[in-house]
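Data availability (excerpt). The following record was deposited with the supplementary files.
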Amino acid sequence: MMPVIEIITLRAPQFAAIPRLAGLITLSTSLTSASLFKDKYNYAVALRVMHWLTKEQIDGGNLTTISGISTPGAISSESEGETSRSYAVSSSSGMGSFEDLKTTGFGKELFQLIRGCSFSPRTRIMVD
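Predicted structure:
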């Protein structure tokens, strides 16, 4: 199994040298289920860290000293003069409690990994 730091270095080299990376990996490790992901555990941990760091960049963080300010949803419109932003929050994505993950590519990938690793009951008629 490839170490988390190597996955991050391969997938998002811009994050590999940030000083907080080890701490974020430790935090992600404590929040990620080894029993759910099994042999994909390190990949899930790395995706969560890359999702967080991407969100910080989107929200104005500089990855070394300033964490981005969390926003309530994806920006749906933005103006520059007299600054104006609107945020879109959708509950119809089918992601349920994983709504935050749809805000970055790494988050979407983590959500797909969660879906692929977990068993959900199915009926003959399933709408995805």
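Summary of structural features: The chain has a mean pLDDT of 81.
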